[in-house]
């Protein structure tokens, strides 16, 4: 087993499945210590046991509801008391609901912002004093939706716009303090994210051939831990589309109208 992370302690939120699950495995594979947060405590326990069996690395897990401010505070206090200082935070937890503005309830918007934005910010603030004093790396999983909005994704896109804005401001604030900040902007990934975002499966079917593999995403993120990587953008063709959108939004919306309306 390679040991490029040298026992670095890495918190991963939303770790019980999908990208988070694969992040945990790749962190351990590279010699880091995965610290897993998600609501599914029993699933996290199984993961920790399997990771130790596969890699010899003893991780840590805590059942934590990222929509509950008190529970986030409790979980980070427990990590501090049990593990001590950590070296990296990967904010991976998040969800989306794909529906028109007219049909999306206000409490659904609120729920997305609570987890995707405010929960993320609270996690950052919980570890930031330690990172400023001793260095560290913050990775925020955003989305290409944060760069280019599409129909029926108003709440999700708005929350990821907020994540990008927060991430870019944070990076500038802590750049001189030994803290790396990386934004990760992804297109559709083959995970259970769509079980809630697209329960009928129509959008999944339309983008199936374009979906990213969560293992590939996780491997790339872990590869860039503790390096001054500003952004990771996948897939490359979607990032090109996002850049075109910034330059020529009207033309891009016209050219990609059919793709935009597949939700």
UniProtKB/TrEMBL annotation:
The lineage of its organism: Bacteria, Bacillati, Bacillota, Bacilli, Bacillales. InterPro entries: NAD(P)-bd_dom_sf (IPR036291), Sc_DH/Rdtase_CS (IPR020904), SDR_fam (IPR002347). GO terms for cellular component: membrane. Belongs to the short-chain dehydrogenases/reductases (SDR) family. This is Oxidoreductase. Pfam families: adh_short (PF00106). GO terms for molecular function: oxidoreductase activity. Keywords: Oxidoreductase. It comes from Pontibacillus chungwhensis BH030062. It comes from the Bacteria.
């Amino acid at each position: 087993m390679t040991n490029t992370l040298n026992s670095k302690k890495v918190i991963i939120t939303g770790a019980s499945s999908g990208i988070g699950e694969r992040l945990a495995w790749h962190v351990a594979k590279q010699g880091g210590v995965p610290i897993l947060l998600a609501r599914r405590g029993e699933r996290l326990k199984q993961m920790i046991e399997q990771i130790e069996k596969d890699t010899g690395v003893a991780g840590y897990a805590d059942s934590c509801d990222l929509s509950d401010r008190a529970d986030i505070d409790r979980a980070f206090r427990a990590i501090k008391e049990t593990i001590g200082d950590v070296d990296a935070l990967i904010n991976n937890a998040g969800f989306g609901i794909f529906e028109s503005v007219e049909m999306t309830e206000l409490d659904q918007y609120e729920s997305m912002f609570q987890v995707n934005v405010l929960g993320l910010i609270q996690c950052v603030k919980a570890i930031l004093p330690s990172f400023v004093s001793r260095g560290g790396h913050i990775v925020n999983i955003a989305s290409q939706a944060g760069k280019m909005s599409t129909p029926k994704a108003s709440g999700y896109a708005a929350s990821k716009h907020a994540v990008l804005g927060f991430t870019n401001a944070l990076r500038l604030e802590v750049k001189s303090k030994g803290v790396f900040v990386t934004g990760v902007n992804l297109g559709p990934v083959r995970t259970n994210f769509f079980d809630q975002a697209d329960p009928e499966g129509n959008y999944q079917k339309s983008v199936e051939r374009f979906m990213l593999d969560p293992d590939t995403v996780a491997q790339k993120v872990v590869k860039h831990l503790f390096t001054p990587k500003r952004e990771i953008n996948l897939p490359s063709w979607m990032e090109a589309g996002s850049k075109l959108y910034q330059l020529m939004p009207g033309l891009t919306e016209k050219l990609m109208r059919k793709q935009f309306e597949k939700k």
